[in-house]
Every structure is written in C-alpha cells, then in structure tokens.
Amino acid sequence: MKCVALRVLFVFFLTATLGPGTGCKSDGNTEGVGGSLAGENGAAGKNVGGGAGTHSEGGTAGQSIHGGDSGGTGTSTQTGGDPGTDPGATVLSRPVDMANWGTPYRITVPSGVMVRPGGTALLTTPKLPKPLPANSELSRTMERLRGSTAQKPSHLKVLFYGQSITRQPWWNEVIKWFETTYPTVKFEFLMQASGGMAANKMRRASEQDVIPLQPDLIIYQNYGDYLDIDAIIRDWRTRTTAEIMLQTWHLGTENPDAFASIERMNYLYMPNVCERYGCYLLDVRTAWKDYVKAKNIANDALTRDGIHLNAEGITLMAKLVIDAFGNYPASGIPSDPMHLVETFEIGKDLPWYQGRLLADFDGTRIDIVARSDAKLAADLASVTIDGKKPSEFPEAYAFTRPNTNGKAIDLPEPGWPWVIGAPMRIDRTAKLLVEYWTLSITQRNGNDFQFTVAGSLTGNDGSGSRNAKFVSPSGRVVIAPEDWHTDGAENTGFNLTGNKVVWKAIALHTDRYPPSALPGDATLPEPATMIIAGLSNKRHRIELKTKDGKALPLSAVRVYRPVFGR
Fold first, then answer.
1. Cα dist. 324→108, 174, 178, 318 in Å?
2. Helix (H, G, I), strand (E, B) or coil at 290
3. How far apart are CA 531 and CA 520, in angstroms?
4. What is the pLDDT of residues 311-362, one digit of tens each?
5. What's the structural domain count of the chain?
6. Residue 542 belongs to some domain of the structure
7. CA–CA distances in Å: residue 471 to residues 426, 503, 505
8. In terms of Cα–Cα distance, which of 488, 492, 483 is closest to 201?
9. Which residue range(s) make up the domain with 491?
C-alpha cells in the first residue's frame, strides 16, 4: 500500500455536552440578549444563491462546480500512467504540525467585565488542542483571494448568516469590494439570514440553512444565548470545513440592566467561542465605541430604531468587515493550519491503474477535480464509497429551506420566515428521494392548524397538526411542534389557512463521473465535482472506475475534514 504521508497525528476529544440554553435572555443563568426583532430585507446583492441546490454555479453534489482550494494542482497535463502492478489503495492524509500553535486569542476586555457570580461559566470543552496561530483563522480564504489569477482563477463560496442586521445592505458593499478587489475570483455569494431568528431558533434552522451549502466562508452575526451560539458553531466545525468570521454586536439603545450581560457576551463569551473553535472574531463593538466617541454622538446614533442600522451605520458595518479582509496580514501566516481541506494531485500523490483510482481518505466530503481544459462527456466512470454507491448513504441527502411556493424556492431571497408561516426545520427518519415536497395547511383551530404533506415521488404522505410532532408514514418528513414559525407571519397579517409550503430534497452526491459534460474552458477554475458530502468524519474508501479502462484528464482529489469528530 502506497502512503502519501502519516495520518493526522492528533485526536480531538469532545468531552462536553452542551445543553440547549434558555433562549434569549438579557441576564440570567445563561448569558444572552437580543431576540425577536422583526427583520428588514436589504436590497439583493449580485450573484446571490438561494437554498441548497440553487447556487449560481452549482451546489448540490452531482454538479460540476467551478472551484478549488488554492492548494490545487493547476493545469498539469499529467494524468499518470499505470504502474506495473496494482498499487492498491493510496492513503490520502497529511500530518498537522502544531509547533507554531498556542497563541492565545487577544481582545481588550473593558474594565469590570467579568463572569457574573452564579452565571454561566466559560466553557473549556470542546476545544482545539491549542489555540490557532495568530491571524490564521481566515488563512485559506485569503490564500484563495490573493492567489487567484486570470490563468488560474480561484472559486470562493461565501455565506452571510444571521438576523435582520445581516440582511441590511452593508453586505452588498462587501460583495462589491470583493469583486472589485479580486476580479479573477469566481465568487458565489449566498444570503441565508432571517430577521428575528435569535440563536435558539437559528440553532435549529442551520440544519437546512447552512449544512447542505458547504460554504468556504461564513460571515455570521447573531443575537442570543452563549450556549446556543456555541452549539451552532460547534455543529459547523463538526460538519463543514468553512472558515468562520463571528461579528460582535454594535451599539444601540441598550437597557442599562442588560448592559453588563451584553458586555460579557461580546468580551468574554464570544471570544471564548472563537478561541476554542478557531474562528475569526470581528470586534465590531469596540470599533463602534471608538467611532461614536470620536464623533461625540450617542451610542444609538447609527441606528434608526435603537437596533437596526441607519445609512451611517450600514456604511460603518461594511467598512469593518471589508477592513478585516483588506488589512489581513500578507505574510507569515500558515495556510489552513487545521488541514480542513487537502488537495492531492492525481499522477503524483494518487496513481491511475487500469482506469481506476482507489484511495482511502479521512473526512466527510470528497471532490474530484478535472483539469480546467478537460472537455469530457458525461458518465464516463462509476464511483463508489466504501464499496457502495454514494446514493445509498442516507446522510448524503438534505432538505432546502422551506418556502412559500414552488417558484420562491428557487429565488435568491425567499420570503421566510416573516412573510409566511413555515417550519424552521424539517427532519426525517428514512432515506430521502430527490423530489419536491408540499405541505398544505387545511384547517385552522385557534393557535393550532391541520396540514397534509405530499412528495412529488413519494405521493401523499399523511396529515398532522401544528401542536403535535408529525412523522409521515414514509419517515421522509418529521416536523417538531417547536420548529414551526408562525407567530411572525400572523403579525404581518398573513393568512395561514390555505397556504402551501414547498421545499426540496436534494442529493449531496453523484454515482457517476462526470455527472454532466465538462466544457473544457481553460479560463474557468478547475471544475470540482462533489462526489459525496455528509459522511461520518472517519476513514472511507473511494473508487472511481472508467468504463473504457483508460485514465481521464483529472487534476486532483480534494478531501474535506472538519476539525471536530475526527
């Protein structure tokens, strides 16, 4: 057996069990503020994708998405000749070097800010073995941005996530800056923020809002409870390889009784989350304090209602996010120190043998990357994972965010959750089919209502009520009572009766390669095809076998290994 390198040398021990928290509190047993503030939708940005499977350049597995890690292999013409004998499975793994780790996360804590006696103690687990090297939290993103050229363009999928503050149009200015500053990068911008969705609700919604999208970078702001925010980021660190920017909270009209709790969240609890999970903390709050002090204006002068930003506040928020990327150190920063995404060159790290690639990898997702000039017809090879078709894995499917109708599901900014009533989350107990689902509200009884569900392939799949847990006969639809979000819609005058909520079940896999023809356009990034995502974070075996027994013009295999769950 050929081995590229030693396996990763450390194991993360997840010893803490995080409770669900207690929602959005201004002070109490758990720290958190914010909550049910009706959102406002900012103007849509450019190149914006909606839910999973509706991206501008792909998103569900089985599509060729032009993308790649900056550690890709360029446009080498080598496809690798067959060795004389069968080399067996190549182990795709590289060791993580923590020699330069251990720099503590630094943020200036205002005098008097401390954990309240009897309040929530700072969590100590789960955590990285050591803090990441200073300024390395966004290193893979910056390497892709700065390393992109016209001859070898990079791809970057950026997700904006949070509440109504995130939906305000500062993010459009960030998009413009990215596109102007890095014109050769092929960006995919996604907006999934929902007004009023505090962390206790977003913790549930993230299952469909974030996990199926598998973003490269998440820019995230959320009001709510410390334990809920911690659980959200823990889930992302366990199931995605996204780099994460967590924004602290700007100043507004703050209740004096809640001020101490707000300060603790921003200067103790959120930095604690970032240090333990290796996230980038954008200290919005301190910058906001400095700005209003320099201009001698009130704390809430940059808001229109005490919380939502006015034009000056939008400008400042955009500047703070842009400066975080624009002023990122240009040298001395290790790239991807956690080895979240690894690229292995075909023909060098991984040999062909009689039209077959066979490799063992550790991770939750694997992509096949073709040469950018490769012009290929569809369905030239079969793919298996652990000896099975990728479609046989129940975890390699996902639901999109529930929306109002079949058309809105494919729009960039669906009207959810404040315009319509819809579940925040749909679960299942059985393997999905790739199909549309429709939930029809049939009858209203006070704060309860009845509904039916049907799949475009499954057919009619039972009826239920809002106040009871619903499990469809097929097991493909499960809705918990707490996952309905109807009160906000009622407040806007929306009539629930007769409403239809539609969502998709999508594939995070493909059984054949390539799933669609490749154009052979050398001006595009190397086309990466997601073979499967959603696997358990352990060792798996991939086998790609061409129908004619000949090697294909492939560039690399790319492995995604979240930092927790290894």
1. 17, 11, 12, 10
2. helix
3. 20
4. 999 999 999 999 999 999 988 888 899 999 999 999 999 999 999 999 999 9
5. 3
6. yes
7. 10, 16, 16
8. 483
9. 396-507
